[in-house]
């Protein structure tokens, strides 16, 4: 009689034999998180790098604690106690949003099932859910039934993907030798465009000077007349305009390029138009500000970041294209994965990634639970809040503003009328660092026209005008303290943030 082999059981792996332990563990994890969220009253603990580095370094990763509960308690003290909380109303720094609860429910499901949406036999309806959301987003953009796209890790990857497709489109149309053509390709964008445009050009093997700056108007928007002239200049030099990158929601000013006029130039010149709407994609569901995206349907590709303006957890982004065949120009086939003879839906042909999470499920759950209109109302609220912040700052004699906000960013600086600009440039990075070290409020900083400015980035519709007043007064009080100290290093935050660091940190 043959011996019956027992199935090996590993109690830490998710499955039907461990589901009760999983539920218990999830319940306790949720309780620990809830306790922290109930108790938190400011966006950051205020601890400096050195003590936090010591905490992390003190953990012996080769000596496990033995239980999930023990590991959870350790992580709670190490991570949760020092996390930056984007839901707190005085977090006003970067393009980070509080997240919709239905999306968190979806995170629980997709993490446990661990679906990979690269091929049908790993995802089934997960692939169909993603495709339906791509079609829904394309329809919101104004694309027709031939549109396509794929979810990505974020705006940087989406922008890279869009420019990759533009490169391949231009090479196919030119029918020229790739090695000869690549050094001649040029991408046109403004200085306000996202840094990933330059990074993408390098990754795509373009020349070091491949990104050509286009002049802007007084509000930081691309000038279509200047764009047309710049294309003429490139052609006169026997260079090849590969793509124009227009931005719907620049990182610093939050401005939207004139998409309709830019689209006309690109269509007349047969140049690929990529619209980076990573920030401004919330306008797609806005009931009051959608007109700011007029003309976006002329784009060949569009970046959308649902994890910014649709209140989704990171990561949830997509690249959407007007014509589906363009997505296939970068497909690479492998017999074990996506043979050319496949007859089922397959996403790996379109993606720069192979293994890929079902991030689309978060948006699906959110839309089904609360709907696009409520999401759009939340985005409209932060746009309105920026106008209110602008109004508050205009009433202050010791604050200056760059421009009236378009979306939900406000550029300003604390500057008493007696303070020279050069000294203000020295003061503001230290002021911002002092606020961060205190943890009560977190704001952003950047450089505009060679000078340092502070920035509110408003993506929390639960932030109130009173919260803004509180932060403005905190900025004033902190600035006065630093000035009264006559730049005494002992009273200045130990790790001042330089203009260069802040400029590079804006995402």
Features of the shown structure:
507 residues; alpha/beta; PLP-dependent transferase-like; Aspartate Aminotransferase, domain 2; Aspartate Aminotransferase, domain 1; 3 domains; seven-stranded mixed sheet; five-stranded mixed sheet; 42% helix; 12% strand; disordered C terminus
Task: Give an account of the 3D structure.
The chain has 507 residues and is of the alpha/beta class. It folds into three domains: 19-85, PLP-dependent transferases (PLP-dependent transferase-like, Up-down Bundle); 116-370, Aspartate Aminotransferase, domain 2 (3-Layer(aba) Sandwich); 373-505, Aspartate Aminotransferase, domain 1 (Alpha-Beta Complex), CATH 3.90.1150. Helices cover 42% and strands 12% of the residues. The chain contains 17 helices and twelve strands. A seven-stranded mixed beta sheet has the order 2-8-7-6-5-3-4, with helices on both faces. It has a five-stranded mixed beta sheet with strand order 1-11-12-10-9. Strand 9 and strand 10 (409-414) form a beta hairpin. Helix 4 (101-113) runs antiparallel to helix 13, helix 14 packs parallel to helix 16 and helix 15 (421-438) crosses helix 16 (465-484). It is globular and about 85 Å long.
């Amino acid at each position: 009689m043959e011996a019956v082999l027992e199935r090996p059981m590993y109690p830490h792996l998710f499955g039907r034999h461990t589901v009760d332990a999983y539920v218990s563990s999830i319940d306790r994890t949720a309780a620990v998180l809830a306790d922290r969220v109930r108790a938190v009253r400011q966006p950051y603990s205020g601890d400096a790098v050195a003590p936090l580095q010591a905490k992390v370094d003190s953990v012996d990763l080769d000596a496990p604690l033995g239980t999930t509960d023990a590991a959870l308690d350790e992580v709670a003290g190490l991570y949760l106690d020092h996390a930056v909380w984007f839901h707190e109303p005085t977090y006003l720094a970067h393009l980070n949003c509080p997240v919709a609860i239905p999306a968190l429910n979806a995170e629980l499901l997709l993490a446990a099932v661990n679906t990979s949406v690269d091929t049908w036999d790993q995802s089934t309806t997960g692939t169909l859910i993603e495709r339906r959301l791509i079609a829904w987003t394309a329809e919101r953009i104004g694309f027709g039934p031939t549109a396509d796209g794929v979810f990505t890790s974020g705006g940087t990857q989406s922008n890279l993907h869009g420019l990759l497709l533009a490169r391949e489109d231009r090479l196919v149309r030119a029918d020229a030798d790739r090695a000869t053509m690549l050094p001649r390709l040029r991408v046109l964008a403004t200085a306000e465009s996202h840094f990933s445009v330059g990074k993408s050009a390098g990754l795509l093997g373009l020349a070091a000077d491949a990104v050509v700056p286009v002049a802007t108007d007084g509000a930081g928007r691309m000038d279509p007349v200047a764009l047309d002239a710049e294309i003429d200049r490139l052609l006169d030099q026997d260079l090849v305009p590969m793509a124009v990158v227009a931005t719907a929601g620049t990182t610093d000013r939050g401005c939207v390029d004139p998409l309709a006029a830019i689209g006309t130039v690109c269509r007349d010149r047969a140049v690929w138009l990529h619209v980076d709407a990573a920030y401004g994609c919330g306008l797609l569901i806005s009931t009051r500000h959608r007109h700011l995206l007029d003309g976006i349907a002329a784009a060949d590709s569009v970046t959308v970041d649902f994890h910014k303006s649709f209140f989704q957890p990171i990561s949830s982004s997509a690249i959407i294209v007007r014509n589906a065949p363009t997505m296939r120009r970068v497909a690479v086939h492998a017999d074990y994965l996506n043979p050319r003879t496949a007859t089922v839906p397959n996403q790996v042909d379109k993606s720069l990634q192979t293994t890929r999470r079902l991030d689309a499920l978060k948006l699906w759950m959110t839309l089904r639970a609360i709907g696009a209109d409520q999401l759009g109302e939340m985005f409209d609220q932060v746009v309105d809040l920026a106008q209110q912040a602008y109004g508050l700052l205009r009433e202050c004699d010791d604050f200056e503003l760059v421009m009236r906000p378009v979306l939900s960013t406000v550029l300003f600086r604390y500057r008493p009328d007696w303070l020279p600009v050069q000294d203000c440039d020295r003061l503001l990075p230290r002021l911002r660092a002092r606020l961060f070290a205190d943890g009560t409020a977190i704001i952003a900083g950047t450089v505009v026209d060679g000078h340092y400015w502070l920035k509110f980035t408003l993506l929390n519709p639960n932030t109130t005008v009173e919260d803004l007043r509180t932060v403005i007064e905190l900025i004033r009080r902190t600035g006065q303290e630093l000035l009264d100290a006559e730049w005494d290093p002992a009273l200045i935050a130990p790790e001042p943030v330089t203009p260069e660091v802040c400029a590079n940190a804006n995402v």
